[in-house]
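Reviewers asked in the last cycle whether our approach scales beyond single polypeptides. To address this, we selected a multi-component target totalling 955 residues and predicted its structure end to end. The input consisted of the following lines:
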Amino acid sequence: MISLNHFLVVGALLFTLGLVTVATRRNAVGVLMGVELILNGANVNFVAFNHYVTGGVTGQVFALFVIVLAAAEAAVGLAIVLSIFQTFKTIDVRHADLMRE
Amino acid sequence: MEPHANLQVVGHAAEELGRLAVHHVSYLWLIPLFPLVGAAINALVGWKLQKLFGKKIVHRIAVTAMFAAFAVALRAFWQLLHLPAGERFLQNTLWNVLTAGRVTVDLAFALDPLSMMMVLVITGIGALIHVFSIGYMADEPAYWRFFSYLNLFVFAMLLLVMGDNFAVMFFGWEGVGLASYLLIAFWYTDPEKAKAGMKAFVANRFGDFGFLAGLLLLFWALGGAWAPRDGFARNLDYRPAAELNAVAGAANAAEADALAPRVDGVKVGPTLNFRELRDQVVIEATGVKEHLANTQIWGVSLLALIGILLFVGAMGKSAQLPLYVWLPDAMAGPTPVSALIHAATMVTAGVYMVARLNFLFALSPSAMGWVALIGAVTAMFAATIGFFQYDIKKVLAYSTVSQLGFMFIGVGVGAYWAGVYHLMTHAFFKATLFLGSGSVILGCHHEQDMRKMGGLKKYMPITRWTYLFACIAIAGFPIANGFYSKDEILWKAFTSRHLELFGAPAPWLGPLIYAIGILTATGTAFYMYRSYYMTFTGEYRGNAGHHDEHNVDPHSAVAAKASALSHSVHADDGAAHAFGLDSHAPSHGAVKLHAVGHAAAAHGHDAHAAHGHDADAAHGHDAGHAAAHDDADAHGHGHHGGTPHESPWTITLVLAILAAGSFLTLFLGIPAAWTHTAPLLEHWLEPALLAEVPFAHVDHIWEYAFQGAGVLAATIGWLAARALYKDGLSDVPARLKARFERAWTVVYNKYYVDELYAFIVLKPSVALARSLSRFDGSVIDGLVNFVGAIGRFLGRFDAGIDKYLVDGLVNAVANATWGFGRQLRHVQTGRIQTYLYGALGGALVVVLLNFLIS
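The resulting structure, written as structure tokens, was:
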């Protein structure tokens, strides 16, 4: 029988993988993809808690919000990456350091 | 004779004298104003006017000012003439200058018969000398400066004689000293002339110190002695000190006047005002005279001390022994200055002062004795120096000193009017002589050495006749004014019996002074005729181009060179040098101007190259003069070679007027023995010269005899000079000179008085100055430097603290902050992932802590 804990472990794994991806990726698109993983880890938690603990649809609705938010975030993020590429001819985040110093 | 007996005689005569009646008028200030305005205009904008309108405007301003002053003086004279003799006193107060307790000083002018005469002489003869200067100074580039100084001098001199009180008089007294200094050192680029100016100023200052001391002593004597003072007798029954102290609290002149103590309506007590002084001294009832006569300081009569101190001032201004030394040196100034200041006006200031204070001097036979004795000795001393001088102006200078000695004999023995009369006659004939010598000097191309003159009567007839007439006047022949004044003085000297020396009666002094005087008169005639014969008779000995450089002033040197050069131009073949001008002139602008200026005189020769070559040295340094020489050569003395010439009409006219004056003024002093009435001038001066001094009564026959002796003395002097110097033929002077070489040298070198002064005064003061300078350099400077070194050390120490401690701390803080920030900079990498690690690390720590704590 699949319990709440299984979902939570999957959510935690997704979150951790996303976090690691964000922290270690040098490719800006990779970083954005890590952010997607983190958001989806959160979504799993929302849905799981809604199903096993509270009932109703509040969690599902929140998950939908997060998906929309993730889409918007991806659009804005990709636009920034495009802009970075135009400026630096690369999307390596280490090189986008003009505001240093 | 007891001194007291004398005083009683004086007192008896003065008993009838009352207070002086005063007529207040409002125009006297105009007299000194005109010269002041003239001086101011020329001093402030003269250079501009001269540049814009030429020299004419400058002398027109100055001469107009003089004649305007003379006109106002005549107006005042007219008014005085129409007043009764006893009331001839015009007074004009402008404003109160200061009131300090008992001292009130007004800017006020007064004219009494004495100062009226002086004002007429100053403005009248002064105006003539201004006119003379037009011709004489025509070559001078700083024309405006000269006329400004002349007017300034006249202004100061008018203050001196017109001042209603000692303060105004003293202002003028110093002012004439200043103007004299400025004018003597007029050609200040020549160090000798600048030195002569300074010498005059310093010698005068020395005399002024005596004058001032005398004034202060007099002031003190009038008031100070009333109040009880240790060691001095107090005249208890005269004035309570309280009354005088009340005056000391007055706030303004009117209050001081109202509070001043009075006896029978006569203001008594200390005063600077001549009239108040005169009133309280001459009016017996005030007791002032008695008080002054009885007061002694350290065993010396107070009055004698005052008189002698005042006379020290007169010695300086009027060039008496031993302060006469500046006057001969003052001849370095332009000749009109010598005539105006050093013959006609300023040098008579001392005589005027003694005459003005006659009522004081008459009270002290001792002071009078000294005045007369020093006058006599000076007269003799200066005359002997005059015997052997070759510089025509030097002869006149020593003659002036000698004649001033005569004036002091006059005022010293109590013949005040005679002394003042001699002052006036001297102003005329000595001005004539000086201006005549100026004319001669001009005619001879600024030559002053009589050995290089001679035969000038052919070339300068007017100058010669006027000079001769002035010689007659000064020698003392009865056809000119000098006889009348000089013989009156000598006669009065002979008959005076009341003089004292060192407080002891000296009845023999009068006859002794007479003896000295008559000998001096002989000498006067001798040296004056010597100068006349050396200058005007015989052959002309001067050759242009061979000038004695010592006697030539820098401006005339140029003229002399130029005339010499024009000869060389004539001698040369002009054509050979025809192109010289082109090659040389452009490089020497001044020379070119000069050379062009001479083109007309050089009879069309084109040989200006000679100028270009030789004149370079002479002109190169003085471009301005060369230019001036060309544009305003009124008499053109640079243009004809070596022959002397008569001076322009402005000069000869003035000479003629002055000579006429020397004749006409004799009518003012026809002796009483001839007419049995007092001479006009004596009568005129009577109200001002009120002191009556006793003279021995001698029969008129004797007076005739003495007048005969005077004429005889003059004749002897004249004949001796004629025999020795006429036409320059006699070789006796040279033989005598060779025979008495040593004596001649001593006298020729003026008895080495200047050297004596250098030894007694100059050397010690220079030595003192040197030692003080050394003291200053070693001790004072050492101390100052030591203190400075301490300060410097402390400063260094303080700087060290500041630098290393305070700055160190501040810098350390700054450095620490800076370094810390530098280290922290590494933390902020700008990489989001680094921060993320931080956040993760932080979160981990929080989680771990959560587990550990709970």
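The radius of gyration of chain A is 17 Å. We regard this as preliminary and will revisit it once experimental data from Aim 1 are available.
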